[in-house]
Amino acid sequence: MALSTPNSGATHPWPHPSNDASALSRFEKWLPTLLSIIAGMVDLTGFLTLGNLFTAHITGNLVVVGALVVRRGQINPAQILAIPVFILAVAATWLFARASGKRGPGLRRLLFLVQFLLLTCVLIFSVITKPSANPHGLMAGIAAMMAVSAMACQFALLRLTLPVAPSTAVMTGNLTNTVLSLLDRQSRTQPLMTGDTERLRGSLYLLIGFFGGCVVGAVAVSWLGDWAWSFPVALAGVAVML
Question: Labelling 155: which of 56, 87, 94, 194 has CA 20 to 30 A away?
């Protein structure tokens, strides 16, 4: 049974926790899926071209750095630097949003533009300097920090303008929701989770979107090298125009 907000017949691809929130527009409803595709492309492209660094998944960098420290392996400095840069970029996004005085769709469009410009900088910088030729070099590190900043902006964008949306880059929670919702649907007893159909649909969209973005990113890197950054830039541009 689909959930809907008060005074609206619109259904959501994820459960809406607020009783007084207005119905999501068609674009807002599909926004997390679009962002998950972008996140998949950025994460995979960065991983293959910038020294096995996760630009959209800071947890992965923490794990890699921890393993390398214990095993005394060669650490990519960018993997360590990505953590404080992500924190600073989120803080900078918050400060920028506060200074703009905008809220809701106006702020969302503005932050989309910031993400688009950051990804465009990654593309231009990568095409000029070819960081993939030396994934552990200075140029790769600079490109990686710009990509990390772009993804930090995306995380902050969702939390500030669409807080009901699930994570678009960390798929562990979405995979958990998918498994639990499938089990609830197959169970003949009272479901343990409310809104399982909507939760399942939303989580599946995000999982498919992120994985699809990873696949497209891998193909783009194989065919286009550093020009592969043009794919997430193009999608970010679509988000701005919409």
Answer: 194
The residue to which tokens 């399982």 are assigned: 196
| Nearest one of 125, 128, 112, 119 to 149, comparing CA atoms | 119
CATH class of 28-241: mainly alpha
Pair of tokens at residue 137 = 């070099």
**Per the structure block, which two tokens stand in for 225?**
């090298």
Q: pTM score > 0.85 for this model?
A: no
User: What pLDDT shows up at residue 67?
Assistant: 77
Nearest Cα neighbor of 146 from 188, 115, 172, 169 is 115
Decide which of 113 and 11 is more confident.
Answer: 113
Domain boundaries, the chain: 28-241
Give Cα separations from 156 to 100, 109, 165, 226, 229 (angstroms): 15, 13, 12, 26, 21
104: left (phi over 0), alpha (psi -120 to 50) or beta: left
Q: Counting Cβ atoms within 10 Å, is residue 18 exposed (0-12), middle (13-18) or buried (19+)? A: exposed
User: What is the widest separation between alpha-carbon atoms in the chain?
Assistant: 60
pLDDT tens column, 63-82: 877 777 777 767 778 888 98
